[in-house]
Amino acid sequence: MADALEFWSYVSTSQLLEETLPSALNDLVTAAQLKNERLAVTGVLLFTGAHFTQYLEGAPKELRELRQAIETDDRHRDVTTLSQGKISGRSAKQWLAYVQPSVYLDTAVRQAMSSLKTGSSAGVHKLLAILQEFGHLKN
Ligand SMILES: Cc1cc2nc3c(=O)[nH]c(=O)nc-3n(C[C@H](O)[C@H](O)[C@H](O)COP(=O)(O)O)c2cc1C
């Protein structure tokens, strides 16, 4: 039987300061890249300029530990789950990060956030589809 795999995707609000943004993003992405490789966690991180959204997949234990670290990281706040669950195979071959600020992406994240508040699913599904496209994730 194949090893158990889970995924977790979320949105959050950046707490990074404008003045130190390039180096702060570089530090975050460099450390995450190394650790994700070590934990065999794959997926995609998007930074919109004001928010983050990320899709991660891996073994349950590794994903749980990483999730705890991410949820308590003070470089962002209001970490809110978009979707999570078990999967039978990986969608992503690797982990990618796109950190170029984008009004298009930020609007999609804001719409997903209000969707989550109102319990409607349209904005959440749209953002999940965007994550899938950015990460070259398989359906
Ligand atoms: C928006 C955001 C996304 C992050 N994504 C990852 C990630 O994919 N992988 C990772 O290892 N750390 C990620 N981190 C950093 C973790 O919160 C944490 O700092 C790191 O895993 C701790 O590494 P350590 O084992 O060296 O203490 C992220 C942090 C933020 C704010």
From TrEMBL:
Residue span(s) of domain BLUF: 5-98
Any Pfam family: BLUF
PROSITE patterns given in the database record: BLUF
Gene Ontology molecular function terms on file: blue light photoreceptor activity; FAD binding
Protein name stated in the entry: BLUF domain-containing protein
